[in-house]
Amino acid sequence: MRSVKKIYIDTPSGQVHCRIRGGTASPILFLHQTASSSRCYEQLMKRLAVPNKLVAIDTPGFGESFEPSGWPSVRAYCRTIMEVMDGLGADRFHIFGHHTGATFALEIAGTWPQRTQSIVLAGVPFMSPREREELAAEHGKPLPIARDGSHLLANWSMPPITTPTARWTSFIARSLPCFGPG
Predict the structure, then answer these.
(1) Residue 118 has pLDDT above 70, yes or no
(2) Residue 130 confidence class, pLDDT cut points 50, 70, 90
(3) Nearest Cα to Cα of residue 125 among 99, 144, 104, 106
(4) Rounded distance between C-alpha atoms, residue 88 and residue 116, angstroms
(5) Pairing verdict, β 52-57 and 15-21
(6) Considering just the CA atoms, what is the radius of gyration of the chain in Å?
(7) Mean pLDDT computed over 117-130
(8) Distance from C-alpha of 77 to C-alpha of 147, rounded to nearest angstrom
(9) Quick check: 169 pLDDT over 60?
(10) Residue 148 domain-assigned?
(11) Number of domains in the chain
(12) Strand partners, 18
């Protein structure tokens, strides 16, 4: 197994925490799902038998990265990710994105195609127009935070999303050790 180091990259937006494993070939950037961190990739990074430099970042607001102000757009998150890759001197790189990270990978590939060598997507929420409407109707409204924490009960009692896409994404999340509990 190879060692993984933890570092911070200073960006104009703030400090971003990264896990890095050295290599001689083009970097592979790992982007995690929301409410997770680069930690979910650490064991994979140690064991992956490739010559590439491996980079996993904590998305701003998660793990040990800076807390962004407000609700950044996908484009704003991706600008910060590109600032990290600039800080690492990575002109071109591959991207693996899981769930929210897949959304970021698509945005980066579309906005900076000259820097993107390839992308691998896991847990992409492909939805029909009806499924998007259902998601927005059932899960698109922010819950006001209650001092006594009762807003958490309201969130936990929301009906599950029952679309085929959601069931498949849930299956993938439970099946891959990197994305499951622990």
Answers:
(1) yes
(2) confident
(3) 99
(4) 15
(5) antiparallel
(6) 17
(7) 85
(8) 29
(9) no
(10) no
(11) 1
(12) 7, 57
Burial 147-179 (b: 16+ CB within 10 A, else e): eeeeeeeeeeeeeebebebbeebeeebeeeebb
Alpha helices in the chain (DSSP H): 42-47, 74-87, 100-111, 129-139, 150-156, 164-175
The model's pTM is 0.74
pLDDT at 157: 67
Assess if residue 28 is contained within a domain. Answer: yes
Q: What DSSP string describes 100-116?
A: HHHHHHHHHHHH-GGGE
CATH classification at residue 10: 3.40.50.1820
- Span 39-68, pLDDT tens digits: 999 999 999 999 999 999 999 999 999 999
pLDDT at residue 172, rounded to an integer? 43
Q: What is the dihedral of CA 51, 109, 59, 85, to 10 degrees?
A: 50
Domain limits at 17?
A: 5-126
Is-contact 84 16, C-beta < 8 A?
yes
What pLDDT score does 141 carry? Answer: 62
Q: Is residue 112 part of a domain?
A: yes
Instruction: Tell whether the model's pLDDT for residue 145 goes beyond 80.
Output: no
101 within domain boundaries: yes
Q: Which residues, in sequence order, are bridge partners of residue 56?
A: 19, 30
